[in-house]
């Protein structure tokens, strides 16, 4: 199978797929998925329930096989070299792999055994990771007594035992409270700063916005959109520049200069539809300069990822129009 076209010429590629397909019975779950994820980056796969996020993770981590298409992970083809893939990756599934009947430490040592670490090395790695994930104190307690956040941290600690270069996190923060979510984000950022590639799935748009270098939105078996958070936000209408004035005369002058602006006379603000690009901002400022007025405040408003998500996956009972447009 030719694999050369899968790897980019410049930066090493952690994960790439071409035309990945998967069906269950007559239900097409993945209908041709192309992905390209550079090493050392964070990639977020977003999608509503049942979109195929877990299925994608399972294919890339060799737990199931695709019906068609190619996928390379860490330079290995998932179909022809699953062992090579497995040696390079760690997977934290959507549902916890933690055994509640044994202690956190025992769960870790079990993973060390699975990775064929020596007893001594297994102990060292276990102690290190438990400390790093703030679980040293709880190490000797049965994992069933852990809180959701602690279990999730243990799950990820277990994933890291084999020192994987690529990790798959399937909904790493679902069910966590805001503080635990932020802790998890911090953990993920630290992994990335160590050079690990992170492939995460999430239903939380703020999570993707916060963590991911690139985001793909999965809908109806296809990638509905892919790009940075900023690029995705620019896909939906609703972006605008808001100019606020304190001097009514300046406001009037600006309002007559900027024809396409929506006026808010009480608050002396003007709202101008704009994608927020440098060129658009400059033209607004040029207009203001031309009539010699200065705004007291200029703010750029871009639609958030929620708008993008609803616009792209709008057939599932979600609003047809992005929020910004409905306002
Ligand atoms: N083993 C299976 N047999 C039959 N259908 C399956 C199987 N696994 C998944 N599916 C179906 O494939 C579709 C995609 O499931 P998947 O678990 O990948 O979605 P998801 O995006 O991870 O959803 P969620 O956000 O709920 O975790 C669903 O319709 C699901 O019912
Ligand atoms: Mg899932």
Structural write-up:
A six-stranded mixed beta sheet has the order 6-7-8-3-9-10, sandwiched between helices. 36% of the residues lie in helices and 25% in strands. The longest helix is centred in the middle third of the chain and has 16 residues, at 178-193. It has two domains: 10-227, P-loop containing nucleotide triphosphate hydrolases (Rossmann fold), CATH 3.40.50; 240-301, Alpha-Beta Plaits (2-Layer Sandwich). The chain starts with 12 loop residues before the first strand and ends with a helix. With 327 residues, it is an alpha/beta fold. Helix 3 (104-114) crosses helix 4 (119-132) and helix 3 runs parallel beside helix 5. The structure holds adenosine-5'-triphosphate and magnesium ion (MG). Magnesium ion binds at residues 53-54, 94, 170. Its main location: membrane. Belongs to the ABC transporter superfamily. Drug exporter-1 (DrugE1) (TC 3.A.1.105) family. GO terms for molecular function: ABC-type xenobiotic transporter activity; ATP binding; ATP hydrolysis activity. This is ABC-type xenobiotic transporter.
């Amino acid at each position: 199978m030719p694999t050369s076209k899968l790897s980019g010429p410049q930066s090493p590629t952690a994960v790439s797929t071409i035309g990945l397909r998967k069906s269950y019975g007559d239900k097409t779950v993945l209908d041709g998925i192309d992905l390209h994820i550079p090493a050392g980056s964070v990639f977020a796969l977003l999608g509503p329930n049942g979109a195929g996020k877990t299925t994608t993770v399972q294919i890339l981590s060799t737990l199931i096989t695709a019906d068609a298409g190619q996928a390379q992970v860490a330079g290995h083809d998932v179909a022809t070299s699953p062992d090579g893939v497995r040696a390079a990756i760690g997977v934290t599934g959507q549902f916890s792999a933690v055994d509640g009947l044994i202690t956190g430490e025992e769960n870790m040592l079990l993973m060390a055994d699975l990775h064929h670490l020596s007893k001594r090395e297994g102990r060292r790695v276990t102690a290190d990771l438990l400390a790093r994930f703030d679980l040293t104190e709880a190490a000797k307690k049965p994992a069933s007594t852990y809180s959701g956040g602690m279990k999730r941290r243990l799950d990820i600690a277990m994933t890291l035992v084999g020192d994987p270069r690529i990790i798959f996190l399937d909904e790493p923060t679902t069910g966590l409270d805001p503080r635990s979510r932020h802790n998890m984000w911090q953990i993920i950022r630290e992994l990335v700063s160590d050079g690990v590639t992170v492939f995460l799935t999430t239903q939380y748009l703020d999570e993707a916005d916060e963590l991911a270098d690139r985001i793909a939105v999965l809908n109806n078996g296809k990638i509905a959109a892919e790009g940075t958070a900023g690029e995705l936000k620019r896909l939906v209408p609703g972006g605008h520049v808001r100019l606020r004035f304190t001097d009514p005369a300046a406001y009037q002058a600006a309002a007559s200069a900027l024809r396409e602006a929506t006026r808010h006379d009480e608050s002396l603000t003007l709202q101008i539809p704009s994608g927020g690009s440098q060129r658009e901002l400059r033209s607004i400022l040029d207009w203001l300069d031309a009539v010699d007025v200065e705004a007291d405040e200029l703010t750029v408003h871009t639609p958030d990822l929620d708008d993008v998500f609803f616009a792209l996956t709008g057939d599932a009972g979600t609003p047809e129009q992005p929020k910004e447009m409905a306002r």
